[in-house]
Design goal:
It contains 5 helices and 2 strands. Helix content is 53%, strand content 8%. The mean pLDDT is 86. The chain is globular and about 55 Å long.
């Protein structure tokens, strides 16, 4: 393997370490759920954040799996244990069956740190 490939792999390891600093047992499914939420955050206040259904399609996972992973990434997991506090899932006031996902301040910071490590403006 060439040195450029090794540098890229090292960068990915550093990104993984950012997540593991939050909680050591974090897995790839949780990271993918966070990435899907981070990728789809609205650029302006006029745009809407993604629904769980849209995120599930983007992350190529079923709705229930994504919902479970997002609970773990939010403030409380499904067993009412402290979550990571990276996202907030809110019920849409206009359509109670629809839930939208937002990054918290902590989630925005993690997103910025990941993009910085990957040299993405």
């Amino acid at each position: 393997m060439n040195s450029r490939s090794n540098r890229k792999l090292h960068t990915l390891m550093r990104v993984n370490e950012l997540f593991m600093e939050e909680r050591s047992e974090i897995n790839a499914n949780l990271m993918n759920a966070f990435y899907a939420a981070a990728m789809t955050q609205p650029a302006t206040d006029e745009q809407q954040s993604p629904t769980l259904k849209e995120l599930a399609e983007l992350a190529s996972v079923n709705y229930r799996t994504l919902s479970r992973n997002l609970r773990y990434l939010s403030y409380r997991d499904r067993k009412d244990k402290p979550g990571l506090g990276l996202v907030v899932v809110e019920v849409n006031s206009e359509n109670r069956r629809e839930k939208r996902v937002f990054l918290t301040e902590k989630g925005e910071q993690l997103r910025a740190d990941v993009l910085r490590l990957l040299n993405i403006p």
